[in-house]
Amino acid sequence: MRRTRRQRHGDGVGKIFVVERNLVGWTDDEIDEMERRCGESNSEFTERGVRHVESIVIPGDETCLAVFEGPDAETVRDANEACRLPTGRVLAAVVRPAPLEKSW
Questions:
Q1: Which of 37, 42, 52, 104 is surrounded by the most beta carbons within 10 Å?
Q2: Residue 72 domain boundaries
Q3: CA 87 to CA 90: how far, in whole Å?
Q4: In order along the chain (104 residues), what is the average pLDDT of each group of 10 residues?
């Protein structure tokens, strides 16, 4: 199915939130372990109505931006903290897909 301009990631599922994780001083192995724990936490997230979409690690800034769908920022924060995942700011976000190319 082709996405239109108005469709956004997660339509009808939940709102999008970004959890900012401070990874200052973390090794690659520690980051891999954190991502493994995040993946293993799917049942905990699901019970709270939260879904982990993806994580973006920014090595040069020692930051991870973890993208979630959920009902509200507090629930997303609580789910991350319950899974003992580092949780900084939790921000509402909007996914804006790249413009569709015209087919000539």
A1: 52
A2: 22-93
A3: 8
A4: 40 80 94 88 90 93 96 96 93 89 69
